[in-house]
C-alpha cells in the first residue's frame, strides 16, 4: 500500500556525521553552532525525535510563568516550538545570539556538533524514551510531517530506524553519546517513562535543577497543565497554526497517544526479537534501563 502524498519527498543530507533535512536545516548554520557562546542561564532540552520534546517545552513554559496558565495560553498564537525554538532550524542560530536571557532552546542534534562551551556553562536536560515507542511514534509522525519521507509501510520504516537512516540517525548512538557526557556538563537526565509514571516528582526535579522557587500550588498547576489529556486539547501543543503544507493535520494529531507500550500494537514477534537483539548488543555497557510497558 502506498501512502505517497508529496510530489517531492525531501531528502536527508549527510553532514559531519549527522543527517540534515533538506530545506529545514542549513549546513552552514549547523557548522557554526559548536562555536556559540553559552551563558550560565541558557537551558537546552536535548532529545532524539519523538521522545517528549514538546512535553518538556510545555513544562519549561509553565515553570517560567510560575504555573500561570493564562500567561501560557495567551501565547497560543505561537507554537511551543516558536517559544522554545530548535537551535538547528534554519535562521534560529542568529536569533539565539542576540536573544535576552534566559535562552531556552531544544535540539535533536548530536553531541559533537553542539557548542563545546556547554561543558562549562548552561544547563542541559536530556530526555530519553524507550526506543520501541520512539520508533512507533516516529513512524506516525513521518506520515504527518511533510518534511519527512512518507514511509512505504511499517516494516520499511522499522528497518530504516534500526539502520539509523532517519533524522536523528541511530537512536542508540544518540542516547549512548549524550548519556556518556552526563558527568561533564550540568545535565539532568530523565526518561519519558519516569514522566509518565510520576510527573509530579519529575517536575519538582526540573524546578530544583533550574533553581526555580515554586509553591506547591504553582507546581501542581505546572503538572496539571502538562498532562496528556490537557495538552492534547491545546492548539499550540498540536502545532495547529503550522500550515498544512508542512504538517498534514488530517493524517493525525501531534499529541497522538502519549503512552508506554504502543509498540506492542505494531511490532511482529519477529521484529521484536530483532529489536531486542540490536538493543542488547548496542546498550550492553550502558547503565540505563527502560520501562517497555505498564
Ligand atoms: P506518541 O506519538 O507516542 O503519542 P516529540 O515532542 O519529541 O516529538 O514527542 C512526541 C511524543 O510525545 C508523542 O508520542 C506525544 O503524544 C508524546 N507526548 C507529548 N506530550 C505528552 C504528555 N503530556 N504526556 C505523554 N506523552 C506526551
UniProtKB/TrEMBL annotation:
Pfam family, one: Sulfotransfer_1
Keyword Transferase on entry: yes
GO molecular function, one term: sulfotransferase activity
Keywords: Catecholamine metabolism, Cytoplasm, Transferase
Domain of life, source organism: Eukaryota
Gene Ontology terms: biological process: catecholamine metabolic process; xenobiotic metabolic process
Annotated compartments: Cytoplasm
Domain Sulfotransferase: 40-286
E.C. number(s) listed in UniProt: 2.8.2.-
One GO cellular component term: cytoplasm
Assigned protein family: Belongs to the sulfotransferase 1 family.
PANTHER family to which the protein is assigned, alphabetical: SULFOTRANSFERASE SULT
Protein name: Sulfotransferase
Annotated organism of origin: Pleuronectes platessa (European plaice)
